[in-house]
Amino acid sequence: MNYSHQFIDGGRSILPVGKVVCVGRNYVEHARELNNPVPSEPLLFMKPATALSAMSELIRIPAYSNDCQHEIELAILMGKKLSSATIDEVKGAIAGYGLALDLTLRDIQQHLKQQGQPWERAKAFDGSCPITPFVKPEAIANAQELEFSLSINKAVKQQGNSREMLWPIQQLLAHISTYFTLMPGDIVLTGTPSGVGPLRAGDQLVLELARQYRFTTQVMANPHSFK
Ligand code: ZN
Q1: Residue 69 in contact with residue 103, Cβ under 8 Å?
Q2: Amino acid 118: pLDDT
Q3: Cβ neighbours of residue 58 under 8 Å, at least 6 residues apart?
Q4: Residue 5 CA to ligand 1 centre (angstroms)
Q5: Which of 49, 35, 59, 50 has the alpha carbon at shortest distance from 186?
Q6: Ligand 1 centre and the CA of 7: distance in Å?
Q7: Ligand 1 centroid distance, CA of 150 (Å)
Q8: pLDDT at position 166
Q9: I need a surface site. Which of 110, 141, 162, 184 has the fewest CB within 10 A?
């Protein structure tokens, strides 16, 4: 793994690379599209540091899946340690905002769900979290009003705005920190809006944040050459 956190001005972050804490079903429309109930508290899961890869790298789909799906999510880079944090502590702890793909092997996940097994093989595999460079918080007017979108081969597939989150960012980070201490360099993915769907070999992806920052990536032409 040669991933390290970057900022959009080209600066490399000195923060270490840590775990990725993810929230499922933080947008009502996405929960409905997969026929999942809207949960009464955040559904949390994790990806290890080995899931991270720079968005500029090719996306690789593991050979054991035929249905690797995109979930675009607003990603938070942690700058300070948070443990059972208050909202005030959360406010000073965010080091950056970016976009991530929570790659999900939907066929494997369905199988694991049916067996009552954990999701790691569907969501935590190597490279399952392509991530963009981060925008510093000073450059974001209101993190709870951030628009973002994913286009594939020039067609818009997912569009969201952080104002539609069931659990807003600060509450979410405080809640997560009551279970898992968030360390500097950890990342939190804040859930995906509706429109998830499959990625195919050679797909060209464009991710946009706040109509201002644009990132591109591509699915490997022969994804099954991996593992
Ligand atoms: Zn997700």
Answers
A1: yes
A2: 94
A3: 217, 218, 219, 220
A4: 20
A5: 49
A6: 23
A7: 14
A8: 93
A9: 141
CA gap 108, 66 in Å, rounded = 9
Give residue 32's pLDDT.
81
Distance between Cα 102 and ligand 1 center (Å): 5
Distance 192 CA to ligand 1 centre (A): 5
- Mean pLDDT, consecutive 10-residue segments, the chain of 227 residues? 89 92 90 80 95 96 95 98 97 97 97 95 97 96 97 98 96 97 98 96 97 96 59
pLDDT at 224: 56
Question: How far is the centre of ligand 1, averaged over its atoms, from the C-alpha of 70 (Å)?
Answer: 9
Distance separating alpha carbons of residues 126 and 1, to the nearest angstrom: 9
Under 8 Å between Cβ of 177 and 184: no
pLDDT at residue number 124: 98
Give backbone dihedrals phi and psi of 34, rounded to 5 degrees, phi first: -100, 15
> What gap in Å lies between CA 45 and CA 8, rounded to an integer?
27
pLDDT of 41: 86
Ligand 1: centre distance to CA 23 (Å): 6
Distance 12 CA to ligand 1 centre (A): 26
